[in-house]
């Protein structure tokens, strides 16, 4: 596989399934069977290769945030497919970790909470207290011993709070799910308070996008503000996963819908002609390479909004089809999702033969909602 790129212009990139580029920009709707088959192929490839390094990725700890994002999408696919193979895979992860959250960065760090989303979904399915208890206990501790850290980047213990936008995907949905499961408002109250603090800090009102963290406030890239695609994808997908748990009409639901709609309007404008979102959202001409993790999360977020009556179907459906059809061109014949930007915090590079588990999580999340849209 070869890729040829010229500055400011995307040349065509040959993949085993076709061409990943402008020539394939499509707004036609796929069939349910096509979506199902593609999701199954990608999910099966990922499970088969989960414990093996390669294709630009290393093997991550089961509780690592990278895998936490995978499990979010894999859980959606497991529920859609109604195939025990995928539920068994996720349940096996839970047994291996003893249903505990990550420990690498400490109790408060949002990345360590991401795996809790999968635990709580399996608890809903099996009603087994061991799947719930460790996550609930840790969130209880945080409520009663809240971090006093500043949101300013590089201050002591700064990531004990959600001071980088990725965190808004990792942790808040856990709190929202706990609220729905237990009926206790204290989890929601804590989450909303912290989410508002982060949004007040990182959200650019003019652009309706989130900075990755404070260190990007005064940086530019080729004269443009730096709004990282996957970073905003984390937020947009996180908003959908939070809203899924909230009661429509409540003040909390209205708060998150307001942010979600602002982002949706801006992101619709920023989708490229070939259906992707550039790694630097305001600098597409400088980042012509396709990128599938941000595109996957955005496609999921838009499709979820249409399916839940929050976004206008006529206005936004073409955005979803373009995004999903673009993603298809980056899936190889054996099911590997390529063009996933490696772990990072800013716009960078992506390659057709490199993948990552969080990109697959984004893809499966997108497919789960695109499937509902298809006739």
From TrEMBL:
<dbReference type="InterPro" id="IPR052043">
    <property type="entry name" value="PolySaccharide_Degr_Enz"/>
</dbReference>
<keyword id="KW-0732">Signal</keyword>
<keyword id="KW-0378">Hydrolase</keyword>
<dbReference type="Pfam" id="PF07470">
    <property type="entry name" value="Glyco_hydro_88"/>
</dbReference>
<feature type="signal peptide">
    <location>
        <begin position="1"/>
        <end position="25"/>
    </location>
</feature>
<dbReference type="GO" id="GO:0005975">
    <property type="term" value="P:carbohydrate metabolic process"/>
</dbReference>
<dbReference type="GO" id="GO:0016787">
    <property type="term" value="F:hydrolase activity"/>
</dbReference>
<dbReference type="InterPro" id="IPR008928">
    <property type="entry name" value="6-hairpin_glycosidase_sf"/>
</dbReference>
<dbReference type="InterPro" id="IPR012341">
    <property type="entry name" value="6hp_glycosidase-like_sf"/>
</dbReference>
<protein>
    <submittedName>
        <fullName>Glycoside hydrolase family 88 protein</fullName>
    </submittedName>
</protein>
<dbReference type="InterPro" id="IPR010905">
    <property type="entry name" value="Glyco_hydro_88"/>
</dbReference>
